[in-house]
Amino acid sequence: MKNNSTYKSLKRAIALLVVMLAFSVQGIAQCAMCRATAESSIEGDGYGIATGLNSGIIFLMGIPYVLLAILFAVFYHKQIGGFLKSFNDIH
């Protein structure tokens, strides 16, 4: 029965991940003050502070996802380890 609930939880997590990836938009977003600074500092080639600001925002946005992925990996490892241990006890 425990494996059935784990399977359902895994299916829900995968479905949520698919939905999140399907509706994700490139995260080039800025607050109003950052946008004003970036627009006023555009150089002749079209680049300036805006490129660095966007890269920083993307970097800071990615950190929570990396932490969640690590947490998921640890949880998944513990679940698989328990399953393999119980499977070895059967044989």
Task: Give the end-to-end Cα distance, rounded to a whole number of Å.
Answer: 19 Å
Helix content bin:
over 70%
Low-confidence stretches: none
What radius of gyration results from the CA coordinates?
A: 22 Å
Identify the overall geometry. Answer: elongated
The secondary structure category is mainly alpha
Strand content: under 5%
Element string (H = helix, E = strand):
HHH
Largest sheet entry: none
Number of domains: 1
What is the tally of helical segments?
Answer: 3
- How many runs of DSSP E, i.e. beta strands? 0
Could you tell me the mean pLDDT?
76
Short overview:
This protein has one domain. The longest helix is centred in the last third of the chain and has 42 residues. It is built from three helices and no strands.
